[in-house]
Amino acid sequence: MTQFTVHNKNTASEKAKESLQKAEQAFGFAPNLIGVLAESPQAAKAYLDLNTLFSSTSFTPSEQQVVLLAISRYHECHYCIAAHSTVAHMQNVPAEVVEAIRNDQRIPNRQLEALRSFTTAVVDKRGWVTQQDLDAFFAEGYNNRHVLDIIVGAAQKTISNYTNHVSETPLDEAFVAQRWTPPAENLKVAVNAR
């Protein structure tokens, strides 16, 4: 597979350095994902801008992590699941919620399970959700704005999940404790499909 550079302030272009600095301010360090995205200043900026936008949506911080983890779990992104599991723990998202998403299981909390399930349906069906999907989501107190906010999260995670797949982004030390790998049966399917 093609090698991708994990850029830093010394190797990034002038335009990309701004994104690396913004990431350091937001996260306390420049994650390897941003270093990889810095190859394209536009990709790095798009991801960080979407991150800022998604963090100001109608969802609580815990709900945001449910959305981001659910999308990353669907895409089987080892990097983002580890990163968002770490952030979720920092934001006091209950461990059973995080573990349920990581293991593709139902969340014990009905409202968060509706959010996880609907988010997964949006990604799986590429937006072609059914009225039944919407009704189940709305029955737990969500509305049209929440649907659109999930799509913002999906845009953000598509950039990062796909980048991590293509580049095999190395996991940052800060996320190692939450390391995750796809189940072996899924890896076999992916390898056989090549």
Quick overview:
This protein has about 190 residues and is mainly α. It has helices at about 15-25, 30-35, 40-55, 60-75, 80-90, 95-100, 110-125, 130-140, 145-165, 185-194.
What report would you give on this structure?
With 194 residues, the chain is mostly helical. The protein contains ten helices and no strands. Residues 187-194 have low confidence and may be disordered. The protein has a domain at 60-193: AhpD-like. The protein is 66% helix and 0% strand. α1 (14-27) packs parallel to α3, α3 (41-55) packs antiparallel against α9 (144-167) and α4 (61-75) packs parallel to α6 (95-102). The protein has helices spanning 14-27, 32-37, 41-55, 61-75, 78-90, 95-102, 110-124, 131-138, 144-167, 184-193.
Write the layout of secondary structure elements.
Elements: H1 14-27, H2 32-37, H3 41-55, H4 61-75, H5 78-90, H6 95-102, H7 110-124, H8 131-138, H9 144-167, H10 184-193
Helix pairs in contact: 1-3, 3-9, 4-5, 4-6, 4-7, 4-9, 7-8
Average pLDDT confidence is 93
N-to-C series of helices and strands: HHHHHHHHHH
For the record, the CATH class of the domain at 60-193 is Mainly Alpha
Annotation, overall tally of beta strands? 0
List segments where confidence is low: pLDDT < 50 over at least 5 consecutive residues.
187-194
Molecular shape:
globular
Would you tell me which CATH topology of the domain at 60-193 applies? Answer: AhpD-like
Task: Describe the largest sheet.
Answer: none
Specify the helix fraction band: 55-70%
- With helices defined by DSSP (H or I, 4 residues minimum), what is the helix count? 10
Which structural category do the helix and sheet elements fall into? mainly alpha
Strand content: under 5%
